């Protein structure tokens, strides 16, 4: 039985029907001057379904005071015309190992159980199967208003990632070794492809509600969510505002703990989304991350000398 399973973090905001709002403003029933609005992608429909109600949010830290007029003009000229996003999801062996070490340290400290005990918990990892276009192709598409062969949106499958909960104080690199075996097996499998196409087939045959119930049930039978997003290696400017950091998160899903790793400018940030009733001392997880990463780095340095 999963010890850390919890309810949704908070109630999702009411959905906004863009077509209805446009019609109320006299926009002709959801059509613009450029033609009918493109429907929401299957993944977007799935996330917004009441059976699922999953919302992805992201916080951008800016290095300058916000110029609202400049941002508004930029959004209207680019993202407002192409409101879908693509994401690059990766599986980093070392981060998987560090996460196992973090969860192990936190669990055995809280329960007081013997570190010799070995437990396995499962995590869901979303994988985008759509080929990611280059930045130049996306920039050209936004400027011209034409697709130019580039595609927005995600085609999301998922994997079930096991995390081994055990203490390896005598050899911290054991966490990384086990994680590497898991990552190699998952990367060479067709698990994410199968889950994507099976969900698509269920959606077409039985409808969006059946697909949402299936995905929600899958998540209820796992312990936590894990995410590892690859960001730009160089600093990005957001309509004249340099971005200092990126912090993605998610809520509405039935997990009490979600761990996001976001890389940006060769720096990785850990973002936690927790159910406060289940994790009132979530800051200790961050402390455990710092300690676990330090021990693994020291062990790796010792092996190389």
From TrEMBL:
Looking at the Swiss-Prot or TrEMBL record, what is one Pfam family this protein matches?
A: WS_DGAT_C
InterPro entries this protein is in?
Answer: O-acyltransferase_WSD1-like, O-acyltransferase_WSD1_C
GO cellular component terms, alphabetically, are: plasma membrane
Start and end residues of each O-acyltransferase WSD1 C-terminal domain: 152-296
Residue ranges, annotated region (Disordered)? 1-43
GO BP terms: namely: triglyceride biosynthetic process
GO molecular function per UniProt: O-acyltransferase activity
Show the PANTHER family listed in the entry.
O-ACYLTRANSFERASE (WSD1-LIKE) FAMILY PROTEIN (PTHR31650), OS01G0681000 PROTEIN (PTHR31650:SF47)
UniProt name for this protein: O-acyltransferase WSD1 C-terminal domain-containing protein
Q: Which organism is it from?
A: Aegilops tauschii subsp. strangulata
């Amino acid at each position: 039985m999963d010890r850390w399973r919890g309810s949704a973090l908070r109630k999702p905001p009411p959905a906004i029907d863009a077509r209805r709002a446009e019609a109320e403003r006299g926009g002709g029933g959801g059509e613009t001057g450029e033609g009918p609005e493109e429907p929401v992608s299957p993944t977007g429909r799935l996330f917004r379904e009441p059976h699922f109600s999953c919302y992805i949010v992201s916080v951008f830290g800016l290095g300058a005071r916000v110029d609202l007029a400049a941002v508004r003009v930029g959004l209207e000229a680019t993202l407002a015309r192409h409101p879908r996003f693509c994401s690059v999801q990766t599986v980093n062996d070392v981060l998987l190992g560090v996460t196992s070490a973090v969860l192990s340290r936190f669990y055995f400290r809280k329960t007081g159980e013997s570190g010799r005990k070995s437990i396995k918990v499962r995590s869901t990892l979303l994988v985008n199967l759509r080929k990611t276009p280059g930045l130049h192709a996306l920039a050209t598409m936004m400027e011209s208003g034409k697709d130019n062969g580039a595609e927005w949106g995600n085609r999301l499958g998922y994997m079930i990632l096991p995390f081994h909960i055990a203490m390896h104080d005598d050899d911290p690199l054991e966490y990384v070794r086990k994680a590497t075996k898991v990552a190699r097996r998952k990367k060479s499998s067709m698990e994410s492809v199968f889950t994507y196409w099976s969900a698509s087939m269920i959606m077409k045959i039985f409808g969006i509600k059946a697909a949402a119930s299936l995905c929600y049930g899958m998540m209820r039978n796992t312990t936590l969510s894990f995410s590892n997003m690859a960001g730009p290696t160089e600093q990005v400017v957001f309509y004249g505002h340099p971005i200092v950091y990126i912090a993605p998160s998610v809520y509405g899903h039935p997990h009490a703990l979600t761990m996001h790793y976001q890389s940006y400018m060769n720096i990785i940030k850990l973002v936690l989304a927790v159910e406060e009733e289940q994790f009132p001392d979530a800051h200790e997880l961050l402390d455990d991350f710092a300690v676990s990463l330090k021990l693994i780095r020291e062990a790796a340095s010792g092996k190389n000398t």
